[in-house]
Amino acid sequence: MTDKIVVENLYKIFGPTPKDALELIQQGLNKDEIFERTGNTIGVQDASFTIKEGEIFVVMGLSGSGKSTLLRMLNRLIEPTSGSVRIDGHDVTHMSTKELVALRRKDMAMVFQTFALLPHRSVLQNAAFGLEIAGNDKSESEDRALKALDLVGLKANANSFPDELSGGMQQRVGLARALAAEPSVMLMDEAFSALDPLIRTQMQDELLELQEHSERTVVFITHDLNEAMRVGDRIAMMEGGRILQVGTGREILREPANEYVEAFFRDVDITGIFIAGDIAEDATMTFAPDEAADKALKALQDREQPFGYVLAKDRFHGVVSQDSLKHALENNKGGLSDAYLNGRPPLKAQMTLREILEPVANAGYPLPVVGRRQRFYGVISRSTLLEALRKED
Amino acid sequence: MDYRIPVGDWIEAAVEFLLNTIQPFFDGVTLVVGWLVDQLESGMLGIPEWLFIAIIALLGLWRVGWRFTLFAVISMGLVIGMGLWAETVVTVALVIAASVVALAIGIPMGILAAKSDIALAIIRPVLDLMQTMPPFVYLIPAAMFFGLGKVPGTIATIIFAMPPAVRLTNLGIRQVGREMVEAGLAFGCTRGQLLAKVQIPVAMPSIMAGVNQVIMLALSMVVIASMIGAGGLGNVVLRGIQRLDIGLGFEGGLGVVIAAIILDRLTQTFGHHRKQAGVLERLKGAAQWFTRGSGETKDKPAQHK
Question: Which residues, if any, are the signal sequence (chain A) (predicted)?
Answer without folding.
Answer: none
